[in-house]
């Protein structure tokens, strides 16, 4: 597994458990990159869905990926505060093509007041049966949902005060005037 270079622009590829592409984010600026952590930023980037449809993200976002945790976190900067969208997913890998992970449907949406809701449990259950998720994967994913909830409650990692703002300031230094 490689490591992206700070300052470079990469794609992010999301897959499903069966290996099919789920979604591609066209361009994310790498703000920090180590063997275990990638933090990126993007704004108004093109997203391509598995059926070929495209859309443009609406606001700046800071993306947090870790090689040891089965989730990734996107902090979106909106006028009324920072919203987080957390994907329960495989740990990321990076190759010369893109940063890649498997999306396992379960999501946690976190509001600026740090309240949160678990989303897409029905979609997860449907895909778990269709794609025959192994019991060990099911257990890992549910354990990571709880781990992520603990991070939210403890204001840890990307949920810490000023984390998103600090990385957004770094992202702005890469933008063209």
TrEMBL record:
Keywords: Hydrolase, Magnesium, Metal-binding
Catalytic activity annotation: a ribonucleoside 5'-triphosphate + H2O = a ribonucleoside 5'-diphosphate + phosphate + H(+); a ribonucleoside 5'-diphosphate + H2O = a ribonucleoside 5'-phosphate + phosphate + H(+)
E.C. designation(s): 3.6.1.15, 3.6.1.6
Cofactor: Mg(2+)
Residue span, DUF402 domain: 18-156
Binding site residues for Mg(2+) 2: 105, 107, 120, 123
Pfam families documented for this protein: DUF402
The protein's role, per its UniProt record: Has nucleoside phosphatase activity towards nucleoside triphosphates and nucleoside diphosphates.
Family statement: Belongs to the Ntdp family.
Protein name, UniProt field: Nucleoside triphosphate/diphosphate phosphatase
UniProt organism field: Priestia iocasae
